[in-house]
Amino acid sequence: QVQLVESGGGLVQPGGSLRLSCAASGSVFSLNYMGWYRQAPGKERELVAFFAAVGTTNYADSVKDRFTISRDNAKNTVYLQMNSLKPEDTAVYYCNYRLGPYWGQGTQVTVSS
């Protein structure tokens, strides 16, 4: 079993920044299988960012150059740094471990003035 706990969401103004954290515990083989998804009201869940092959990352076109996924292996934690936030980034953000898959409970991000 794998447990994922997200944190760091909140309300931010357009142009602002937030950093999401996902703490993983249990039978996590490697953080290389981690990623972030989001789901806006009335829309399907979409992939935001993930670790691909070792040392590489992939991003949705809508967040490229604004979001950065990173990890701290010692803390078993994955991060999503979100800069230049836009109202259309408003969604519940989920951490994902694809060897399952396993999902966190989600954290709400609201971008509004």
Task: Please tag this protein with its features.
mainly beta, 113 residues, 0% helix
Describe what this molecule looks like in 3D.
The structure is a single chain. The protein has 113 residues and is mainly beta. The chain contains no helices and 11 strands. It has strands at 2-7, 10-12, 18-26, 34-39, 46-51, 57-59, 67-72, 77-82, 91-97, 102-103, 107-111. Strands 2, 4, 5, 6, 9, 10 and 11 form a 7-stranded mixed beta sheet that branches. A 4-stranded antiparallel beta sheet has the order 1-3-8-7, with no helix packed on it. The model has no long low-confidence stretch (mean pLDDT 95).
Number of distinct beta strands: 11
Q: Work out the strand percent.
A: over 45%
Describe the main β-sheet briefly. Answer: 7 strands, mixed
What is the terminal separation in angstroms?
Answer: 40 Å
What would the principal axes of the Cα set say about the shape? globular
| Structure class | mainly beta
Poorly predicted tracts of residues: none
Average pLDDT number = 95
The helix/strand series, from N terminus to C terminus, equals: EEEEEEEEEEE
Q: What's the gyration radius in Å? A: 13 Å
Quickly count the helices.
0
**Proportion of residues in helical segments:** under 10%
